[in-house]
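Bug report

Summary: structure tokens for Xylose isomerase-like TIM barrel domain-containing protein differ between web form and batch submission.
Environment: batch mode, default settings.
Steps: 1) Submit the sequence below via batch. 2) Compare with the web form result.

Sequence submitted:
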Amino acid sequence: MKVGLITNSLTWAGMKDLKQISEWAYENGFRDLEVGPTVELDEKIFSDIKAEGKIDISALIYCRNFLDEENDIGKEHKEQLIKRIEFAGKLGIEKVICSTGVTKDAYYGARFNPEKSVEAVTIWLKELMEHAEKHNVKIAIENCPMMGNIAISPYMWEVLFDKVDSDKLGLAYDPSHMIWQFMNPYENILKYRDKIFHFHGKDTEVLYNNLSKVGILHNITEETKFFEHQWWRHRLVGLGDIDWNKIIANLYEIGYEGTISIEHEDPVWEGSLDKVEQGLIRAKNHVQRFIEG
């Protein structure tokens, strides 16, 4: 196993040049990059980084609602995702990570029924896998419930894998989202050993005092930033509720040899490029100690 990072937190903090990101990452002990959508798909820069051989680029990530029918937004996102599959295939980038998309009829009131979107998602995924197989690229579905997604639980993974049978379709497994949805992040590593193509290094802290006051339906929005009533938050690896020793042990048990890609969305370690960099290094060091024993 090797430790990498998702470029998003660095680009959001102002480090937007992929060459600069790759150099910083290598100098600080990372060995792989998962490149987010804010980085330009410049073939020369990507090729030069890969040819240099110091740090790999094994994945591109593009999570959006591909089934959004408003103003052809979903159509545009589909085109961007297919563009990334073609780009990855051409440059020998192994994986493209994405969401599934979700239809608006899956939402009613405060409830969400992902099964309402299964038919539309199945049609889209079958189309997507034709592109992936043509370009010899693996599609790894993230289990994040945000950004337009129904592959949010082991039950829904079973439903989708049953309907879309492809050895190129698997998971970008993110244990942090299983914590705040009260699912087991450990046992499912063993159960889905053959479908885990990629792994996100992110943690979650459940704020039980707040939870007892507001319940699970009270969530913050970007508009309100109502943090005093937030009942869970993403944390750096090692600062949340996940036992990373157990996570790594289970990954070793299934023979996982891929990347643990640090995804920094910790509000405590944001606010400046320096804090983001410190956060990424802190998370990497926590994961690395279990890999190295």
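Above is the batch result. After comparison, the two runs are identical; trailing whitespace caused the diff. The chain has one domain: 2-204+241-292. The first strand starts at residue 2 and ends at 6.
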